[in-house]
Description:
The chain is an all-alpha fold. The protein has 16 helices and no strands. The protein has helices spanning 3-37, 41-57, 59-69, 71-88, 95-109, 112-123, 129-158, 160-181, 217-237, 240-246, 252-255, 261-282, 287-302, 314-342, 349-377, 383-403.
Amino acid sequence: MQKGRWLVIFLCFLAVTINYIDRANLAVAAPYIQKELGLGSGQMGLLFSGFFWTYALMQMPFGWFIDRVGAKIALPLAVAWWSLFTAATAGASSLASMFGCRLMLGIGEAGAYPSCAKLVSQWFDVKERGFATSIFDNGSRVGSALSISLVALITELWGWRASFIITGAVGLMWVVGWFLIYKEPKAVAAIEQHEVSKAAIIVARQKVKWVSLFRHRTLWGMMLGFFCLNFVSYFFITWFPTYLVTERGFSMKSLGTLGMIPALASIIGGWLGGLTSDALYRRGWSLTAARKTCIVGGLLMSSSISLSVFTENTYAMLGFFSLAYASIAFAGPSIWCLPADVAPSSSHVASIGGIQNCAANTAGIFITTITGFMLVIGNGSFTAPLMTAGAFALLGAFSYLFIVGKIEPMSSEPGQHQDKDTAVVTPRV
């Protein structure tokens, strides 16, 4: 009866998993690429940042595009695009050619999260969205974990170029599977009508223009807060493998085993975050309290990433990183529920998702580039980058707690509550 909508979420989970393998494989293969292409830390920082420039830039237009054509078309288009350029990276022979491939990769990957948020808003009621979101959002952690072991194994066996070809091919296989399996909610005969949260029912007296969304303080708070969260999160999928190898002396074998521990902890944290948000709401907490408790609590705990610089013990270091990554993951599902929670209509969900993700992923540009130059200035020490990440975690908690307002649909005028007749209404299960 319910397997249709969970199958959709599983496909979203696979798409995000592939997404993160394809963006993180560069980080795992970085030591080999640096050696073969003769690149320094500053150049690698620039190379890491290339993906994030186009990824952040394309979030807003991709979100708008998804709301117009639907996630059914937009998501497989995005996966096909980034998979082709993942495979093309294998042919790069210079900093310029690899940088170009990373720029093109970012364009396609921009469509993943806004599409998945749109699909959750279509298929799930508000009291179930936290857990549903945690499933696809955990694809980022599973992808990061798999990239460490999978790319390390492929690199050891066939070289770093083979890892890009193989992971690109996996994405193209997903596209074929999507078109064979996916059907729109109304076409899924096995699911009863009350089990499908339709794309939001709008009885609109007013139209909310895309540009007017930026007049709301809540949206700016979401943008700043998500930027800070990603500043911490992206350390794990960019510089973390290099940190373990260069500063902690990890071999590729230990990188593929012990190095996976923080990512595995984050998977558990992500599920707990989604379940907790839904459970609090079902038990009578306001949507504002349920979402903010998970987000703010997760960000405060993630500041523990800075404590890793004060220990020489490998397991203590991994413990601090695991706590930080699990806490970031705990906050993630509630953050990706917010676009549907605050959207004035169903036609704004992906747009708001794209807007907040655009701001969030400028953090990828900053942490990859700034960390590279901090390493140059600090003679290879990661102390400054890790302390900076902890400070941003605290700033993010402040943003969600004090700048983001009540979690409710935005009205046409900031500061006004949404009229009953214009609110986004989803069927109660």
